[in-house]
Amino acid sequence: MDSDIDRILYDHDRILGRVRELGRDIAAHYADLEAPLTLVPILSGSIIFVADLIRELPLKMRIAMLQLSSYPGTATSPAQDPATLIELTGPVSGRHVLIVDDILDTGNTLRRVRRMLLDRGAASLRTAVLLRKPNKAPTDVPVDFVGFDVEDLFVVGYGLDYNDLYRNYPHIGVLRPELMP
Ligand code: XMP
Asked: CA dihedral defined by 90, 115, 79, 85, rounded to 10 degrees?
């Protein structure tokens, strides 16, 4: 895998350090919450992030997952209106919800998920993303906790894929351009 990566943006240790800080911020935000928090990780890109993040959150929590398709096939431009592939696996009505996603790019995915969770009666809604492309992120999609702001490059690793590959690459990096048609 290493030979497919053009350059590393964030190495694994740096990511883990930042996830630990995010965990502290999120735990402080919900410190007075008496009910359990419901995390909604968006599959599949957030799997590694959420696995590390929840172990930094000493809160009572439930998890309800959901999968949307953002990138049909080998495309590297997000779909305008992502389709639901796996329905939300648990209830959110009356619950305090934290969406967890890998990256805020065009915002189409989070806009849609936010609308769905509010329509289903979430009592409160916050969002944590590991990465944000700040020059693209739309202003109508609020995010409350951000790991890193990244350049507008297609990135892989730590859960992020290209054509469903590289999710297990421990760092976040940019693929060699000739590997992405
Ligand atoms: P949008 O554009 O809806 O994107 O904010 C959200 C989802 O698209 C995927 N995505 C990426 N995946 N490298 C990836 O591997 C990227 O640079 C990238 N940009 C967006 C990702 O699944 C995200 O949740």
From this structure: 20
**Close Cβ partners of 71 (under 8 Å, ≥ 6 residues apart):** 77, 78, 79
Residue partners of 122: CB distance under 8 A and separation at least 6: 38, 92, 93, 94, 95, 96, 97
- Cα(181)–Cα(142) distance, rounded to whole angstroms? 32
- Which pLDDT does position 86 carry in this prediction? 86
Task: Tell me the average confidence (pLDDT) per consecutive run of 10 residues in the chain, 181 residues long.
Answer: 94 98 98 97 96 97 90 66 86 98 95 95 98 90 97 96 96 93 69
* Minimal-distance CA residue to ligand 1 atom 17: 154
Backbone angles phi, psi at 174, to 5 degrees: -110, 130
172 lines ligand 1 (CB under 6 A): no
Contact 36, 62 (CB under 8 A): yes
Q: With a 6 A CB cut-off, is 108 part of the ligand 1 pocket?
A: yes
Helix, coil or strand: residue 44: coil
What atom of ligand 1 comes closest to residue 107's alpha carbon? Answer: 5
Q: pTM surpassing 0.85?
A: yes
Which DSSP string do the residues of 131-154 spell out, in sequence order? EE-TTT--TTS--SEEEEE--SS-
Residue 101 catalytic?
A: no
